Amino acid sequence: MNRCVLLLAVAFVVLVVGGVGQTKAEPFVNPPELNWSPPWQSQFPYPRNIDWSFDTVSPVGGPTPNGTPGAVYEGWLDPELMSSDVVNLNGSVQWYPTLTIGPNTYTGVIGIDNTLGQTMLTGTAKFLLDNTPMTTPWVKHVWIETTSASVGGGWGVGVSAPESDTSLGYHTWSTIGSITAPEYLDDFGFTLDPNPMEETVTFSFDAPAGGYALLDTAHIATECVPEPSTLALCAVVALGLIACVRRRRGAKA
Questions:
Q1: Could you count the other beta carbons within 10 Å of the beta carbon of residue 226?
Q2: CA–CA dist 223, 192 (Å, integer)
């Protein structure tokens, strides 16, 4: 067999075998690099890029070698960090493999169904995400995109870390035709300053009697970037070095 043909055949087999069992996360409907302010600096698939659909398994679990159950990992740092991720559901929040409410059937959702209840129900879903150690003055950007459904009830999301101050860079979109009613598409942006060793994304749910609040998907990306003041300082230092080099060249001339 021609050596070139043989090499191509081997490469094809490697690509096929290497691709078996690997699932790719979908890009964001509203990607952070186009919608985040201050500027999101990394490109898809980002340092951390984790997509939960909740379709086939409860997300509760961790740490495990493959990350949290049912999550699709595609970020650059995910292979190193996913084994430390943890998801917990608390209070009245649970995972529903299938759930029919009136004319709507949901497959794989987390949240609270209180349509037959008599009192208010509340709870949280906490997603703990590991980080690579970074010293200050670096900051963490977190971008969260969700699809959800609710009637009467509601939910909110926050990002926290013990050693960080959270300044909220917050954006939200309603559906604009991209998700069919009764579901909704929302995006949220957060900054953690300084970059923490880990961050916890907390979804808080409440559902009064007769209501419900459900999360159908959760897609989370993170990046660690220098603070704007650090970038400005680097620029000043760079300009100073350039000026120094020019002065030396002028003196030699």
A1: 16
A2: 10
In terms of DSSP bridges, do strands 121-130 and 184-193 run parallel, antiparallel, or are they unpaired? unpaired
Rg (CA), the chain: 23
Cβ proximity of 99 and 105 under 8 Å: yes
Q: How far apart are CA 142 and CA 224, in angstroms?
A: 9
Phi, psi of 142 (to 5 degrees): -125, 125
Number of other residues whose CB lies within 10 A of the CB of residue 94: 15
Residue type, 124: T
The pLDDT tens digits for 191-241 are 999 999 999 999 999 999 999 999 999 999 999 999 875 434 333 334 443
Q: Which one-letter amino acid corresponds to residue 33?
A: E
Question: Residue 151: how many CB atoms within 10 A of its CB?
Answer: 16
Q: What share of the chain is helix, strand, coil (3-state, %, to 5)?
A: 20, 40, 40
Plot region of 62 (φ>0 → left; ψ -120 to 50 → alpha; else → beta):
left
Report the distance separating Cα 189 and Cα 48, nearest Å.
Answer: 14
This prediction has a pTM of 0.80
- Using CA atoms, how far apart are residues 73 and 77, in angstroms rounded to an integer? 9
Q: Alpha-carbon distance 73 to 31, whole Å?
A: 17
SS3 78: helix
pLDDT tens, 109-121?
Answer: 999 999 999 999 9
Coil, helix or strand at residue 230: helix
